Protein backbone atom coordinates (compact mmCIF):
# COMPACT_ATOMS: atom_id res chain seq x y z
CA UNK A 1 0.00 0.00 0.00
CA UNK A 2 2.82 2.38 0.83
CA UNK A 3 4.53 1.55 -2.44
CA UNK A 4 1.34 2.28 -4.38
CA UNK A 5 0.93 5.56 -2.51
CA UNK A 6 4.52 6.50 -3.27
CA UNK A 7 4.14 5.69 -6.97
CA UNK A 8 0.95 7.74 -7.07
CA UNK A 9 2.64 10.69 -5.38
CA UNK A 10 5.60 10.54 -7.75
CA UNK A 11 3.23 10.35 -10.72
CA UNK A 12 1.31 13.43 -9.57
CA UNK A 13 4.55 15.33 -8.98
CA UNK A 14 5.81 14.41 -12.45
CA UNK A 15 2.48 15.50 -13.96
CA UNK A 16 2.74 18.95 -12.38
CA UNK A 17 6.37 19.16 -13.50
CA UNK A 18 5.42 18.37 -17.10
CA UNK A 19 2.57 20.88 -16.89
CA UNK A 20 4.96 23.56 -15.63
CA UNK A 21 7.34 22.94 -18.53
CA UNK A 22 4.37 22.97 -20.92
CA UNK A 23 3.19 26.36 -19.67
CA UNK A 24 6.74 27.73 -19.84
CA UNK A 25 7.13 26.53 -23.45
CA UNK A 26 3.79 28.14 -24.30
CA UNK A 27 4.88 31.46 -22.81
CA UNK A 28 8.14 31.30 -24.76
CA UNK A 29 6.09 30.99 -27.94
CA UNK A 30 4.32 34.33 -27.40
CA UNK A 31 6.89 36.39 -29.40
CA UNK A 32 6.27 34.17 -32.46
CA UNK A 33 3.35 36.32 -33.59
CA UNK A 34 3.71 35.35 -37.26
CA UNK A 35 2.86 31.75 -36.39
CA UNK A 36 -0.01 32.09 -33.92
CA UNK A 37 -1.39 35.37 -35.27
CA UNK A 38 -2.82 33.67 -38.37
CA UNK A 39 -4.52 31.01 -36.27
CA UNK A 40 -6.16 33.03 -33.51
CA UNK A 41 -9.18 34.42 -35.38
CA UNK A 42 -10.32 31.05 -36.79
CA UNK A 43 -9.91 29.66 -33.26
CA UNK A 44 -11.95 32.50 -31.78
CA UNK A 45 -14.74 31.61 -34.19
CA UNK A 46 -14.54 27.88 -33.42
CA UNK A 47 -14.28 28.28 -29.66
CA UNK A 48 -16.47 31.35 -29.25
CA UNK A 49 -19.05 31.81 -31.99
CA UNK A 50 -19.69 28.10 -32.53
CA UNK A 51 -20.21 27.62 -28.78
CA UNK A 52 -22.88 30.30 -28.44
CA UNK A 53 -25.90 28.09 -29.24
CA UNK A 54 -25.26 25.57 -26.46
CA UNK A 55 -24.37 28.35 -24.00
CA UNK A 56 -27.54 30.31 -24.76
CA UNK A 57 -29.68 27.16 -24.62
CA UNK A 58 -28.40 26.35 -21.13
CA UNK A 59 -28.73 29.97 -20.01
CA UNK A 60 -32.33 30.25 -21.21
CA UNK A 61 -33.58 27.32 -19.19
CA UNK A 62 -31.41 28.32 -16.25
CA UNK A 63 -33.17 31.68 -16.15
CA UNK A 64 -36.60 30.04 -16.26
CA UNK A 65 -35.77 27.61 -13.47
CA UNK A 66 -34.22 30.34 -11.32
CA UNK A 67 -37.35 32.48 -11.55
CA UNK A 68 -39.58 29.58 -10.54
CA UNK A 69 -37.27 28.46 -7.74
CA UNK A 70 -37.03 32.02 -6.45
CA UNK A 71 -40.81 32.33 -6.33
CA UNK A 72 -40.98 28.98 -4.53
CA UNK A 73 -38.39 30.13 -1.98
CA UNK A 74 -39.96 33.53 -1.34
CA UNK A 75 -42.46 33.38 1.51
CA UNK A 76 -45.41 35.61 2.25
CA UNK A 77 -43.17 37.81 4.43
CA UNK A 78 -40.86 38.61 1.50
CA UNK A 79 -42.05 40.81 -1.39
CA UNK A 80 -42.36 38.98 -4.70
CA UNK A 81 -40.09 41.47 -6.48
CA UNK A 82 -37.18 39.71 -4.76
CA UNK A 83 -37.50 37.18 -7.60
CA UNK A 84 -35.71 39.66 -9.85
CA UNK A 85 -32.95 40.16 -7.30
CA UNK A 86 -32.36 36.43 -6.90
CA UNK A 87 -32.36 35.79 -10.64
CA UNK A 88 -29.92 38.64 -11.32
CA UNK A 89 -27.49 37.98 -8.48
CA UNK A 90 -27.40 34.20 -8.95
CA UNK A 91 -26.94 34.45 -12.70
CA UNK A 92 -24.17 37.06 -12.66
CA UNK A 93 -22.19 35.76 -9.70
CA UNK A 94 -22.45 32.00 -10.00
CA UNK A 95 -24.64 30.04 -12.37
CA UNK A 96 -23.91 32.03 -15.53
CA UNK A 97 -20.13 31.53 -15.49
CA UNK A 98 -20.05 28.10 -13.84
CA UNK A 99 -22.76 26.33 -15.87
CA UNK A 100 -21.42 27.81 -19.08
CA UNK A 101 -17.89 26.79 -18.14
CA UNK A 102 -18.94 23.23 -17.35
CA UNK A 103 -20.79 22.95 -20.65
CA UNK A 104 -17.86 24.33 -22.62
CA UNK A 105 -15.46 22.03 -20.79
CA UNK A 106 -17.23 19.23 -22.63
CA UNK A 107 -17.55 20.99 -25.95
CA UNK A 108 -14.30 22.96 -26.19
CA UNK A 109 -11.95 21.01 -23.92
CA UNK A 110 -12.89 17.60 -25.31
CA UNK A 111 -12.67 18.90 -28.89
CA UNK A 112 -9.17 20.29 -28.35
CA UNK A 113 -7.93 17.15 -26.62
CA UNK A 114 -9.34 14.85 -29.31
CA UNK A 115 -7.99 16.98 -32.16
CA UNK A 116 -4.48 17.40 -30.78
CA UNK A 117 -4.40 13.81 -29.51
CA UNK A 118 -5.23 12.53 -32.99
CA UNK A 119 -2.51 14.74 -34.44
CA UNK A 120 -0.03 13.38 -31.91
CA UNK A 121 -0.74 9.68 -32.48
CA UNK A 122 -0.74 10.12 -36.28
CA UNK A 123 2.63 11.95 -36.05
CA UNK A 124 1.30 15.22 -37.49
CA UNK A 125 2.86 17.10 -34.57
CA UNK A 126 6.22 15.54 -35.40
CA UNK A 127 5.74 16.65 -39.00
CA UNK A 128 5.18 20.23 -37.82
CA UNK A 129 8.42 20.11 -35.86
CA UNK A 130 10.21 18.75 -38.94
CA UNK A 131 8.94 21.77 -40.89
CA UNK A 132 10.41 24.07 -38.20
CA UNK A 133 7.02 24.99 -36.69
CA UNK A 134 6.82 25.33 -32.94
CA UNK A 135 3.79 23.23 -31.85
CA UNK A 136 3.20 25.55 -28.92
CA UNK A 137 3.03 28.60 -31.19
CA UNK A 138 1.04 26.85 -33.93
CA UNK A 139 -1.33 24.65 -31.92
CA UNK A 140 -1.42 25.67 -28.26
CA UNK A 141 -1.17 29.45 -28.06
CA UNK A 142 -4.02 30.25 -30.52
CA UNK A 143 -6.40 27.95 -28.66
CA UNK A 144 -5.46 29.22 -25.20
CA UNK A 145 -5.69 32.88 -26.21
CA UNK A 146 -8.97 32.34 -28.06
CA UNK A 147 -10.47 30.55 -25.06
CA UNK A 148 -9.34 33.21 -22.61
CA UNK A 149 -10.72 36.01 -24.79
CA UNK A 150 -13.96 34.41 -25.94
CA UNK A 151 -15.22 32.77 -22.74
CA UNK A 152 -16.10 36.14 -21.11
CA UNK A 153 -18.02 37.14 -24.25
CA UNK A 154 -19.96 33.88 -24.26
CA UNK A 155 -20.73 34.22 -20.55
CA UNK A 156 -21.88 37.83 -21.03
CA UNK A 157 -24.41 36.67 -23.63
CA UNK A 158 -25.41 33.79 -21.34
CA UNK A 159 -26.01 36.18 -18.44
CA UNK A 160 -28.21 38.44 -20.55
CA UNK A 161 -30.16 35.47 -21.90
CA UNK A 162 -30.72 33.96 -18.45
CA UNK A 163 -31.98 37.24 -17.00
CA UNK A 164 -34.22 37.85 -20.03
CA UNK A 165 -35.75 34.38 -19.81
CA UNK A 166 -36.11 34.78 -16.05
CA UNK A 167 -38.09 37.97 -16.73
CA UNK A 168 -40.24 36.17 -19.30
CA UNK A 169 -40.95 33.29 -16.91
CA UNK A 170 -41.65 35.62 -13.98
CA UNK A 171 -44.07 37.86 -15.84
CA UNK A 172 -45.77 34.97 -17.62
CA UNK A 173 -46.02 32.28 -14.96
CA UNK A 174 -45.97 34.32 -11.75
CA UNK A 175 -48.09 37.18 -10.39
CA UNK A 176 -45.33 39.72 -10.92
CA UNK A 177 -45.12 42.68 -13.29
CA UNK A 178 -42.20 43.90 -15.36
CA UNK A 179 -41.76 46.92 -13.07
CA UNK A 180 -41.57 44.69 -9.99
CA UNK A 181 -39.07 42.33 -11.64
CA UNK A 182 -36.86 45.26 -12.68
CA UNK A 183 -37.13 46.76 -9.20
CA UNK A 184 -35.82 43.53 -7.69
CA UNK A 185 -33.14 43.26 -10.37
CA UNK A 186 -31.80 46.71 -9.49
CA UNK A 187 -32.23 46.24 -5.75
CA UNK A 188 -28.88 44.60 -4.92
CA UNK A 189 -27.11 45.09 -8.25
CA UNK A 190 -23.59 46.47 -8.26
CA UNK A 191 -21.41 46.71 -11.40
CA UNK A 192 -18.79 44.44 -9.82
CA UNK A 193 -21.23 41.53 -10.13
CA UNK A 194 -20.69 41.44 -13.89
CA UNK A 195 -16.95 42.02 -13.52
CA UNK A 196 -16.68 39.12 -11.09
CA UNK A 197 -18.47 36.76 -13.48
CA UNK A 198 -16.28 37.80 -16.41
CA UNK A 199 -13.07 37.37 -14.41
CA UNK A 200 -14.11 33.86 -13.48
CA UNK A 201 -15.07 33.02 -17.05
CA UNK A 202 -11.71 34.21 -18.43
CA UNK A 203 -9.89 31.97 -15.95
CA UNK A 204 -12.17 29.08 -16.90
CA UNK A 205 -11.36 29.59 -20.57
CA UNK A 206 -7.63 29.62 -19.89
CA UNK A 207 -7.71 26.49 -17.76
CA UNK A 208 -9.99 24.47 -20.06
CA UNK A 209 -7.97 25.18 -23.20
CA UNK A 210 -4.63 24.69 -21.45
CA UNK A 211 -5.68 21.31 -20.03
CA UNK A 212 -7.06 20.21 -23.40
CA UNK A 213 -3.84 21.18 -25.18
CA UNK A 214 -1.60 19.62 -22.54
CA UNK A 215 -3.38 16.27 -22.45
CA UNK A 216 -3.90 16.24 -26.21
CA UNK A 217 -0.24 16.79 -27.06
CA UNK A 218 0.83 14.22 -24.47
CA UNK A 219 -1.46 11.51 -25.81
CA UNK A 220 0.00 8.04 -26.18
CA UNK A 221 -1.45 4.73 -27.25
CA UNK A 222 -3.45 5.32 -30.43
CA UNK A 223 -7.23 5.64 -30.47
CA UNK A 224 -7.54 4.39 -26.88
CA UNK A 225 -5.14 7.08 -25.73
CA UNK A 226 -7.13 9.76 -27.55
CA UNK A 227 -10.31 8.64 -25.80
CA UNK A 228 -8.56 8.61 -22.43
CA UNK A 229 -7.12 12.11 -22.98
CA UNK A 230 -10.55 13.42 -23.96
CA UNK A 231 -12.20 11.95 -20.88
CA UNK A 232 -9.52 13.24 -18.54
CA UNK A 233 -9.75 16.70 -20.10
CA UNK A 234 -13.44 16.97 -19.29
CA UNK A 235 -12.98 15.63 -15.75
CA UNK A 236 -9.96 17.77 -14.91
CA UNK A 237 -11.54 20.87 -16.44
CA UNK A 238 -14.71 20.43 -14.38
CA UNK A 239 -12.66 19.98 -11.22
CA UNK A 240 -10.54 23.06 -11.95
CA UNK A 241 -13.65 25.14 -12.66
CA UNK A 242 -14.98 24.34 -9.20
CA UNK A 243 -11.59 25.01 -7.60
CA UNK A 244 -11.28 28.37 -9.36
CA UNK A 245 -14.87 29.20 -8.47
CA UNK A 246 -14.04 28.79 -4.80
CA UNK A 247 -10.72 30.62 -5.21
CA UNK A 248 -12.27 33.72 -6.79
CA UNK A 249 -15.04 33.77 -4.20
CA UNK A 250 -12.51 33.68 -1.37
CA UNK A 251 -10.24 36.22 -3.07
CA UNK A 252 -12.72 38.78 -4.41
CA UNK A 253 -15.90 38.40 -2.36
CA UNK A 254 -14.61 37.93 1.16
CA UNK A 255 -15.47 41.04 3.26
Summarize the structure.
By secondary structure, the protein is mostly helical. The chain has helices at 2-28, 33-47, 52-73, 82-121, 124-130, 135-173, 178-187, 192-217, 222-253.
Describe this structure as you would to a colleague.
With 255 residues, this protein is mostly helical. The chain has one domain (37-249). Helices cover 85% and strands 0% of the residues. The chain is built from 9 helices and no strands. The protein has helices at 2-28, 33-47, 52-73, 82-121, 124-130, 135-173, 178-187, 192-217, 222-253. Helix 3 packs parallel to helix 6. The radius of gyration is 21 Å and the shape is elongated. The N and C termini lie far apart (44 Å). 40% of the residues are buried. The model has no long low-confidence stretch (mean pLDDT 88).
Which parts are unreliable, with pLDDT below 50 for 5 consecutive residues or more?
Answer: none
Q: In total, how many beta strands?
A: 0
Oligomer: single chain
- Give me the secondary-structure category: mainly alpha
Largest sheet: none
The helix-strand sequence is HHHHHHHHH
The share of residues in extended strands comes to under 5%
Number of helices: 9
Q: How widely separated are the two ends?
A: 44 Å
General form: elongated
In total, how many domains does the architecture comprise? Answer: 1
Helix content: over 70%
The radius of gyration over CA amounts to 21 Å
Mean pLDDT: 88
Amino acid sequence: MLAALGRRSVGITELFGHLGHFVADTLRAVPDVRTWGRQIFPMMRRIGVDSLPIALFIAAFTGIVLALLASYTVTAAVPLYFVGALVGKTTMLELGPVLTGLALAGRVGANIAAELGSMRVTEQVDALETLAYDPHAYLVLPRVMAGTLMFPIIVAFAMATAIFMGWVAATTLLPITTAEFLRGLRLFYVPFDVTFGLIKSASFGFVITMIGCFLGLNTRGGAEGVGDATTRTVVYSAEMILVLDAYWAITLLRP
